[in-house]
Amino acid sequence: MSDEDFAQLRDFIYNHCGMYFHYAKKYFLESRIGRRMDATGIRTHMDYYRLLNSTRGAEELKCLMDVITTNETFFFRNVPQLNALETKLLPEIVETKNRMGVRKLRIWSAASSSGEEAYTLSMVLLEKRAGLLKDWIIEIIGTDINETVIAQAKDGVYGAYSVRNIPDLYRRKYIREEGDRFILSPDVKRFVSFNKLNLYDESKMIVMKSFDIIFCANVLIYFDKTSKSRVVQHFHDNLHPYGYLFVGQSESLHGVNGKFRTVHFPGGFTYKK
After folding, report:
1. 115 and 244: one domain?
2. Residues contacting residue 251 through CB under 8 Å, at least 6 positions apart
């Protein structure tokens, strides 16, 4: 791939979803685009660029997003965050909402991939249904730009790698094993819905309102500063005034958005609106 072709395709992707590929990622992007060129029978990068801009471009763009987005995830991936949610943040939010006379909890798993994060949260909250969250309405919304992983998430069927970190208590109660397939209980799936969403789509992000907590882990690293600022501002707007935003352990809002306050807890941190 020539530098000119790389820049043209990189900019097309950036304008669509905000993901920015530096020249250091040229080989990665070339190999992933190469897969789609093989699949479509296209021989040159310029012809592939023309395909993306043609009447068939929308459908091909879906396929391209599938191959360039990274979807490595598993259940109970960030235990310190979950511990902080259970012991500190959730009781705080419940107390605040009780004072308001509202018994509804809304959580957004942004860039949810194949659903492990959203379903982990569902399991954790299910354990609170007899006490802290008794008679509460629980909504967990998972979104991703990749339609293939959204379909996997809706199925709720996983392999051994995904479930390897699930604590025994949760595994016994919420997972059924059938050979090499691990199937989620309907109770876990009941609180969770999944939809396609491009975090760079202004019209769709504006309507994602009234969340108590947003999780967006290991996604901002793919954005440049401009894209990060745009997405994080939407997160800020979409949270209730007392809400929290979780990002990946290697990510930071420093220099991106100054409207959040950092809250530290054992093993990690979160951002409060």
Report:
1. yes
2. 217, 218, 220, 221
DSSP code of residue 19: B
Strand partners, 265: 268
Q: Give CA–CA dist 129/93, Å, rounded.
A: 15
* Residues 10 and 84 occupy one common structural domain: no
Residue 74 lies in a domain: no
What are the tens digits of pLDDT across the range 159-190?
A: 999 999 999 999 999 999 999 999 999 999 99
**Paired sense of beta strands 137-144 and 192-196, if any:** parallel
| Burial class of 38 by CB neighbour count within 10 A (0 to 12, 13 to 18, 19+) | exposed
What phi and psi values does residue 154 have, to the nearest 5 degrees? Answer: -65, -35
Query: What gap in Å lies between CA 43 and CA 40, rounded to an integer?
Result: 9
- Tell me the residue range of the domain where 186 lies: 79-272
- Reference 250, options 213, 228, 216, 218; nearest CA is 218
* Beta strand extents in 111-238 (DSSP E only): 137-144, 157-158, 175-178, 181-184, 192-196, 211-216
Residues 111, 184, single domain; the answer is yes
Average pLDDT taken over every residue of the chain = 93
Residue 194, helix vs strand vs coil: strand
188-200 burial by CB neighbour count: b if 16+ within 10 A, else e? bbebbebebbbbb
**Can you give the pTM of this predicted structure?**
0.85
Other Cβ atoms within 10 Å of 243 Cβ, number: 24
